[in-house]
């Protein structure tokens, strides 16, 4: 299998000797040092954008950040002037699936391997998504990937956190074909969660759904409670796939830590919003882009270079195939999704207004839901739902990081990994400007952006970059 032609990774760095940081303090340091100067900073904390800021990266971490007037440039450091540019933390997508698909063909048994997982993590990074939470459809190879990432530190792809094999009630909705992950009793659920934690899962996932009432039974509450209680006993958070209001209300009472989709069968009410806020239940992912994608026979962006650079011509042809569009239109669920999307958007707005903590997640990775691109579409839909661009950006960076206690990412602050996204235009003025990617840094090193990518075609075949 041919890897994505991302090209050579450019590393701009010089060895430094001593470095003085800030207005009045100095420290001797050695290593790879890079300075970015005179940008507008959106730091991921929710604070307003700060103009004319500068940043020093040392060995992949942020050594100093602050007003450009306070910078003491380290002797010999490589420097880049970013006047007129915007710098923010790399995006974190809180709901993805890795390694399931080639093009639009989904087959875990055929495709899931370390090479494809890492190839997709590099594609996420090209889109400025520098961390992902992968949600319950991973083979055990993910633990080797993550262990190596955390050992190496300075990686060249998105950082991964995993829920391993999520818990599915036997015969009900959830999981992925080819991966054994079903339980029939609370005792089996307890044993499965303990096994997954022992493997190294960062958190635990369960599914509670019935695919528009086409499956006879959702996960019983006795099993969901066993999953949640065991996860907490083992020091892990528990996250749930839900669709229905009644399940969301019950799971909130059981102590679930986060929902990975919105309530979509109806509007949430003040009772649920208040309960989620009081119990500290997060709306970690609303997956608006997932729901939106199901309202189209042909995705509206297939010819957009920001999308098409990241997929093969064969994938675009498959999306455009008339028989695929006819099949989607004939599905009995197709006419249901416009209302599902409206409910999801309205419920995110209600939760945000009511003080529920919310993140950003896409459910990208399965067939027809594309890594990286969907994160930018999700941000756009969050703003259409009623959030401000700054609120959406904060959800996708600092807030998402807090859920996993990912203290080394998510905000632009001293000591954190320099996982950064540099934009040519202001995303606070227009959320679609997250697509104007100038550069992406993972641990302080530039990686190829989507505008430098042309999948399965000769270099230059995708035309000129238009960030």
Radius of gyration: 22 Å
The end-to-end distance, rounded to whole angstroms, is 29 Å
Q: Which of globular, elongated, flat, extended, rod-shaped describes the shape?
A: globular
The percentage of residues in β strands lies in 15-25%
- Main β-sheet, in a few words? 9 strands, mixed
Q: What is the count of β-strands?
A: 20
What would you say this structure looks like, in words?
The structure is a single chain. The protein is α/β, with parallel strands linked by helices. Helices cover 32% and strands 20% of the residues. It has 14 helices and 20 strands. The longest helix is centred in the C-terminal third of the chain and has 18 residues, at 337-354. The two termini are 29 Å apart. Residues 1-30 have low confidence and may be disordered.
Keywords:
nine-stranded mixed β-sheet, 20% strand, 467 residues
Structure summary:
The chain has 467 residues and is an alpha/beta fold. It has helices at 108-111, 114-126, 141-152, 186-199, 221-233, 245-254, 270-279, 288-293, 305-308, 313-320, 322-330, 337-354, 373-384, 389-403; strands spanning 14-19, 27-41, 50-58, 61-67, 78-81, 86-89, 91-96, 101-102, 105-106, 129-134, 159-162, 168-169, 182-183, 204-207, 238-241, 258-259, 282-283, 420-423, 437-442, 445-447. Strands 1, 2, 3, 4, 5, 6, 18, 19 and 20 form a nine-stranded mixed beta sheet that branches.
């Amino acid at each position: 299998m041919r890897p994505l032609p991302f090209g050579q990774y450019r590393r701009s760095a010089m060895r430094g000797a001593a470095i003085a940081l800030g207005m009045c303090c100095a420290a001797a340091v050695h290593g790879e040092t890079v300075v970015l100067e005179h940008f507008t900073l959106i730091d991921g904390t929710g604070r307003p954008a700060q103009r004319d800021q500068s940043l020093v990266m040392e060995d992949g971490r942020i050594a100093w950040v602050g007003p450009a007037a306070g910078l003491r440039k380290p002797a010999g450091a490589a420097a880049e002037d970013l006047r007129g540019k915007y710098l923010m933390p790399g995006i974190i997508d809180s709901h993805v699936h890795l390694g399931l698909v080639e093009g639009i063909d989904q087959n875990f048994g055929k495709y899931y391997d370390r090479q494809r997982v890492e190839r997709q993590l590099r594609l996420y990074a090209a889109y400025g998504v520098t961390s992902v939470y992968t949600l319950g459809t991973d083979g055990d190879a993910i633990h080797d990937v993550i262990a190596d990432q955390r050992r190496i530190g300075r990686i060249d792809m998105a950082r991964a956190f995993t829920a391993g094999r999520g818990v599915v009630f036997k015969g009900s909705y959830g999981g992925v074909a080819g991966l054994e992950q079903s339980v029939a009793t609370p005792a089996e659920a307890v044993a499965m969660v303990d096994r997954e934690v022992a493997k190294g899962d960062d958190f635990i996932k369960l599914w509670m759904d019935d695919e528009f009432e086409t499956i006879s039974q959702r996960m019983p509450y006795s099993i969901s409670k066993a999953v949640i209680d065991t996860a907490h006993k083992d020091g892990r958070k528990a996250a749930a796939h839900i669709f229905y209001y009644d399940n969301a209300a019950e799971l909130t009472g059981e102590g679930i830590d986060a929902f990975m989709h919105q309530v979509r069968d109806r509007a949430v009410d003040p009772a649920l919003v208040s309960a989620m806020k009081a119990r500290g239940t997060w709306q970690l992912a609303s997956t608006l882009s997932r729901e939106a994608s199901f309202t189209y026979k042909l995705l509206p962006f297939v010819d957009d270079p920001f999308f098409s650079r990241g997929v093969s011509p064969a994938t675009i042809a498959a999306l455009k195939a008339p028989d695929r569009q006819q099949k989607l239109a004939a599905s009995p669920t197709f006419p249901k999704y416009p209302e599902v999307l409206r409910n999801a958007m309205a419920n995110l707005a209600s939760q945000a207004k009511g003080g529920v903590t919310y993140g950003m997640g896409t459910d990208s990775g399965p067939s027809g839901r594309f890594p990286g691109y969907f994160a930018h579409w999700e941000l756009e839909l969050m703003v259409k739902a009623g959030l401000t661009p700054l609120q959406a950006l904060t959800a996708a960076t600092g807030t998402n990081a807090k859920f996993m206690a990912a203290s080394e990412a998510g905000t632009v602050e001293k000591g954190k990994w320099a996982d950064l996204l540099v934009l040519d235009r202001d995303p606070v003025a227009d959320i679609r400007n997250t697509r104007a990617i100038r550069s992406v840094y993972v641990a302080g090193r530039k990686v190829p952006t989507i505008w430098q990518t042309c999948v399965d075609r000769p270099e230059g075949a995708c035309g000129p970059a238009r960030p």
